[in-house]
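Homework help board

Subject: predicted structure for assignment chain

Our instructor gave us this sequence and asked us to write out the predicted structure in token form, then describe one feature. I got the tokens but I'm not sure how to describe them. Can anyone check?
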Amino acid sequence: MTTTDTRSIDPGLFRSTVGQYASGITVITGHDDSGPIGFTCQSFYSVSVDPPLVSFSVMKTSTTYPRIRNMGKFAVNVLSREQEAVSNQFARKGTDKWANVQWTPSKEGNPVLDGTLAWLDCSTWAEYDAGDHLIVLGRVLELGASENPLPDPLLYFEGEYRALLRPSAHN
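My token output:
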């Protein structure tokens, strides 16, 4: 096992080390007077069942998140394996993230993307400073999951999208 002194962590080594943790991919969405807004987010997780809380992290340099913050509410869209292009589209700056993306508004008006595995509609609960990121907690107000047979989730590992390796039916 290789160890490194924590007082001099190389950013590239840090990214490659935490890249060993596989995660799902989400798109955080909202809606304001200018229309729908959203961004791809890999740092999402559940926090509490009582009350129902979830969290995501976002770069402080995000130009999208301040608009979501101002609304005080957001939706988390958990992407399916078939939505790799959607993930890439919402990760780009300076493009029309909503081009050819179908969605339905939640009761709170937040975009729920068609084809997602699951979605959670939230009100902002708290926000915390965390280095070059913000940690956002949301209280879940409404949620849902795909009614179709569930496709695989969109996963990210070692800087690439990945697929689940399913056990063989012959085991």
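Reply (TA_rk): Your tokens look well-formed. For the description, you could write something like this. The chain has a mean pLDDT of 91. That's the kind of observation they're looking for.
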